[in-house]
């Protein structure tokens, strides 16, 4: 009985985190982006510096009419947001935020594979949305999504494989247990590749061609309104949380910290995730969108070779140490 | 797919005699197997192209769940990663790039319904026969995690290294063949990028790779395992 | 370790920006630095409804009417490029001011309205008014929910008159305003006359009281003046 309770409690915590963290990241984006542009950002909703802006947005989205275009493929159109969002929820379950097995939703043996596989599934949602909207801009967005995913999945996987090689395990908790501080410089190239490729997979600026608003309106999500659109947005921010959490766990040592070892591990994980999320926002504000060909060239001529070099380096160091 | 699903069903059936009452896992296994089978059937019979690809996702996902139920976690996630995450995305990409009307496309039928059925049944029969013949009433204890990453790695690189390497060479050959074909048919510059991605030792790839070529590259990579 | 510190960046730098001799990726770092610096600076957002904006003294918010000055000469309505000023008036006869005098007729303003949905805030009416009856007011919060209600009548225009600020001070080096110059001239003339009168009376007093000190000089001038 206590087992069931334990599992239920864990899943509940993960679910709450899944709802809360993306909102926090979104609010931070509002504010950080505004201040980086010399603005204040939302100031009214909720009273104090607009802290409830996203809640208000959510209420607004919920009130809007849920429209399915006449020519659309109704069922797939309606299913797509769920397909986009749910994988991230599943991934969050497997990310350990503290030492030991008590601080992770569910221990997954092949953690890295699980996480990357399920993240890749999320992109199917965009594809389905792009196709089912019966809109040429949506279709273009879907195509760009697919091309981007195919280009960036490989370097991401290779970079993650490098860490797995270093740790000698593909379990996320195992990688954290094996983590040493000198891995930081050792795996820095892999970390950058992973982070950049992850940004591209999430379609975050500067890799946001699939939703490039000045070219194709809003890509796959052009025809969406109301709650379904909100789900897509939530998926994007959940993706940021996942990517930053994963990068923190895989490359930055997760719950390892210079001090406060016992009981405060989760603080370190959250802190690293938050810093990375800030970087994600920062990059969005600072850089213009890449062109489609630039994006592909970056993936194939820079990230993939770098990731392979990182794997080679990892292998060499590993053998030398042993 | 059809074959493996039905094979899976037979496997559970073979395990049955030992227990009068099936365990929860076994029931789940059979149910998921049925769902997978149904999804696979819809995949090949539906008239809507993109729906077929999406039903394929369901079928492949069901297969991954079956692997999970057999405690072959590693294989399950690789299945999702490669097939659902890449192959189906590639399929959808190809469909959308060429022709993906919403609604039925009756002209997308090659008219080879009966031969296809015959081949499918023959393949399924062969696989089922092989599996049944190989395992018969063997009872595999799932309590000890037969398919964990450790076990798979050890088996793959200790006992099955030679077939594994042979397979790699085969894939490499297929890859090279794909490059050759794409070079002969298309523009001379397309197909340079695959080299860059596959062969880091050759150093910097030529800058001339167009994005169109790079976009299709992972397709060639992912097609091979099928 | 590969030599570059920002491995994924250089290709992007090559493809997005003009090639430069500097460290690869320095342009990207510069971009990040700019945004980070901006974040630490004070924002420029004006919190409008909470904080009223500080408007420049000659803001063109709305046109106010000082109807006491209006003579219904219609110059403003005729000069208005988009004909947004409506003026109605009637003639009244004013009885003679003095018995036996002539009766005078006078224009009385009945309606003065400006349609601010048409007005383009050119200010020609204000420039052209010879009697200083129209003024710019910095008031700008007069939005309406119906476009017809943007035609504001004389009472509203008169009310805005209270919001017209005093004319801003001139620049230090500016020419003196004409009114002031004229007034000053008149005042100076008066002062001079008064001074002269005073002088002459003082002179008479002085000469009457004690004529020893510098009497010759004063007498000389006095004699001249007297001669004139």
From TrEMBL, chain A:
UniProt superkingdom: Bacteria
A Pfam family: NADHdh
GO biological process entries: aerobic respiration
Membrane topology: Multi-pass membrane protein
GO CC terms of this entry: plasma membrane
Catalytic class of the enzyme: translocase
UniProt subcellular location: Cell membrane; Membrane
EC number: 7.1.1.-
GO function terms (MF aspect): NADH dehydrogenase activity; oxidoreductase activity, acting on NAD(P)H, quinone or similar compound as acceptor; quinone binding
Transmembrane spans: 7-26, 79-98, 110-133, 154-176, 182-200, 229-253, 265-286, 298-321
Reactions catalysed, as given in the entry: a quinone + NADH + 5 H(+)(in) = a quinol + NAD(+) + 4 H(+)(out)
InterPro entries documented for this protein: NADH_UbQ_OxRdtase_su1/FPO (IPR001694)
UniProt entry keywords in alphabetical sequence: Cell membrane, Membrane, NAD, Quinone, Translocase, Transmembrane, Transmembrane helix, Ubiquinone
Family per record: Belongs to the complex I subunit 1 family.
Free-text function comment from the UniProt entry: NDH-1 shuttles electrons from NADH, via FMN and iron-sulfur (Fe-S) centers, to quinones in the respiratory chain. The immediate electron acceptor for the enzyme in this species is believed to be ubiquinone. Couples the redox reaction to proton translocation (for every two electrons transferred, four hydrogen ions are translocated across the cytoplasmic membrane), and thus conserves the redox energy in a proton gradient. This subunit may bind ubiquinone.
Description of how the protein assembles with itself and partners: NDH-1 is composed of 14 different subunits. Subunits NuoA, H, J, K, L, M, N constitute the membrane sector of the complex.
PANTHER family linked to this entry: NADH DEHYDROGENASE SUBUNIT 1, NADH-UBIQUINONE OXIDOREDUCTASE CHAIN 1
Protein name: NADH-quinone oxidoreductase subunit H
Originating organism: Streptomyces triticagri
TrEMBL record, chain B:
Gene3D superfamilies with a match to the protein in the record: NADH-ubiquinone/plastoquinone oxidoreductase chain 6, subunit NuoJ
Membrane-spanning segments: 25-45, 52-70, 76-102, 114-132, 160-182
Chain segments carrying region Disordered: 185-226
InterPro entries: NADH_UbQ/plastoQ_OxRdtase_su6, Nuo/plastoQ_OxRdtase_6_NuoJ
Membrane topology (UniProt): Multi-pass membrane protein
Molecular-function GO terms, alphabetical: NADH dehydrogenase (ubiquinone) activity; quinone binding
Main location class: membrane
Subcellular location(s) per record: Cell membrane
Domain of life, source organism: Bacteria
Catalysed reactions listed for this entry: a quinone + NADH + 5 H(+)(in) = a quinol + NAD(+) + 4 H(+)(out)
A Pfam family assignment: Oxidored_q3
Enzyme Commission no: 7.1.1.-
Entry GO terms, CC: plasma membrane
Annotated keywords: Cell membrane, Membrane, NAD, Quinone, Transmembrane, Transmembrane helix
Function: NDH-1 shuttles electrons from NADH, via FMN and iron-sulfur (Fe-S) centers, to quinones in the respiratory chain. Couples the redox reaction to proton translocation (for every two electrons transferred, four hydrogen ions are translocated across the cytoplasmic membrane), and thus conserves the redox energy in a proton gradient.
Family note: Belongs to the complex I subunit 6 family.
UniProt protein name: NADH-quinone oxidoreductase subunit J
